[in-house]
Design goal:
Layout: H1 2-20, H2 24-39, H3 42-45, E1 49-51, H4 63-71, E2 75-82, E3 87-92, E4 100-101, E5 107-108, E6 116-117, E7 124-127, E8 131-133, E9 138-139, H5 145-149, E10 159-162, E11 168-169, E12 184-186, E13 191-193
Parallel strand pairs: 1-2, 1-7, 7-10, 8-11, 10-12
Antiparallel strand pairs: 2-3, 3-6, 4-5, 8-9, 12-13
Length: 195
C-alpha cells in the first residue's frame, strides 16, 4: 500500500510539472479544440445536467464549456468540497460573477448561493485529473473527492476525462480498488473510448 501511494505521488509530481510547462497560448488552443470536439458529440447534445469543474492553473480551461452550457439552457454544476469530511457535492451555477476566491485562491460558490443537485440528476460528467492511461485509469489529486462521488451517480452516466495529450501515460497507472476508470478521454487531438 505504501509503495502504491509513493508511486502515485511520484507520478503526480511528474505529470503536474509536464502540464505546468504548457504555455498560456497552448492551454487556450488545446482547451478550445477539446471544447469544439465535445460540443459536436451526442453525449453533450443530449445532456441536460452537466457535472464539470472550474479550471485552475494549467488544467483544461472549462470557462467556454460553462458558457456554452448556459447558452443551451443546460444545468451546469460546480463541485463543492467539504475539507473536513472529504465529501463533495455538486451545486448548480449560472454565472462566474457569483464566485469568490477561497483561501487557496480557487474561485468557489459562497454557501448562501449553493443549490445542491442530487447525483441521480446528472447526465454527463466532465472530470479533471493529473494523468490518465489508455485503459481509462485516472490519477487524481489524492484527496479522493471524485472517488467517493462517482459511485453515487446513476449507472451508465458517461464519465469523460478532459486532458491534454501530454497527460496520457504510456504505461498503466497504479490503481486502488476504489479507483473508477473513465469511459472516455477527450484530448486536443482525439476522443479515446474505453467502453
Amino acid at each position: 500500500m505504501k509503495n502504491l501511494t509513493a508511486e502515485k505521488q511520484q507520478l503526480r509530481q511528474h505529470y503536474k510539472s509536464v502540464r505546468k510547462e504548457l504555455s498560456a497560448a497552448q492551454v487556450a488552443q488545446y482547451s478550445a479544440a477539446i471544447a469544439r470536439q465535445l460540443f459536436a458529440t451526442s453525449l453533450w447534445q443530449q445532456s441536460h445536467t452537466v457535472m464539470l469543474y472550474l479550471s485552475f492553473q494549467n488544467e483544461v480551461d472549462t470557462h467556454a464549456i460553462y458558457q456554452q452550457g448556459w447558452q443551451e439552457s443546460k444545468t451546469m454544476l460546480l463541485p463543492i468540497c467539504a475539507p473536513s469530511g472529504g465529501l463533495m457535492e455538486m451545486s448548480s451555477i449560472t454565472s462566474f460573477s457569483v464566485l469568490t476566491p477561497n483561501r487557496y485562491g480557487i474561485d468557489e460558490l459562497p454557501a448562501a448561493l449553493q443549490q445542491i443537485i442530487a447525483p441521480e440528476e446528472i447526465d454527463l460528467c466532465l472530470i479533471p485529473g493529473i494523468a490518465f492511461d489508455h485503459t481509462g485509469n485516472r490519477l487524481g489529486f489524492g484527496s479522493g473527492y471524485y472517488d467517493r462521488y462517482l459511485p453515487r451517480l446513476r449507472p451508465g452516466v458517461p464519465r469523460v476525462a478532459l486532458a491534454y495529450e501530454c497527460q496520457l501515460s504510456p504505461q498503466m497507472l497504479p490503481v486502488d480498488d476504489y479507483d473508477l476508470p473513465m469511459d472516455y478521454i477527450l484530448t486536443e487531438k482525439q476522443w479515446y473510448e474505453m467502453r
